[in-house]
Amino acid sequence: FSLREVLDAFRRCVTEQREVLLEPYLSGWRGLIRFLQSLGTVFSFISKDAVAKVTLLETHRQRHNFKSLQSMVEQELAAGQAALRARPDSGCRTVLRLHRALRWLQLFLEGLRSGDPRTSVLCTDAYNASLAAHHPWVIRKAATLAFCALPSREAFLEIMNVGTAEEAVAVLGEAIPYIRDVYGITQELFESHKLLDLP
């Protein structure tokens, strides 16, 4: 895992026209998955799901030659809302699942950057503010228990693979605004097309 690679991917994601390019978006996600996997089994329930979603979205991107998130949404909506809602493997539904997980990661990384040493609290708070609402009670309970086994903040900053803890905090400071920007654009796009509640 390299935080700089994730930073670079999300930096390349957004065009001047505020479109989200799918190739760097997926590249950023592959980096975030490596981060989750480096933390061991604690995050396996999220990382396995993310791997499946990224693979599915990559297949959609290649098959339909989608360049941006906006072009994918436009093309999938052309068949109508009902048709889109009937497809459990649609690109829109897949992005929505990744979008929710990106919010959790963004909030967690912001917490790590803030300096609070209680990683289990940071992770639980981020989870409760993002993914928890979309998971059944059993998953929520298992996740909250798993977060209790998280390594220390120092261990997380070391996993970032960018040098000292101070350097890791500095790179997080660079990366988070790009992740937040991609999240914000996606949120607005899905909200404007009433896609935030896709089944």
Automatic annotation (TrEMBL):
Domain of life: Eukaryota
Name this polypeptide is given: Ceramide-1-phosphate transfer protein
Gene Ontology terms: biological process: negative regulation of interleukin-1 beta production
Subcellular location, record wording: Cell membrane; Cytoplasm, Cytosol; Endosome membrane; Golgi apparatus, trans-Golgi network membrane
Keyword Transport: yes
Statement: the UniProt record of this protein carries the keyword tRNA processing: no
Record key words, sorted: Cell membrane, Cytoplasm, Endosome, Golgi apparatus, Lipid transport, Lipid-binding, Membrane, Nucleus, Transport
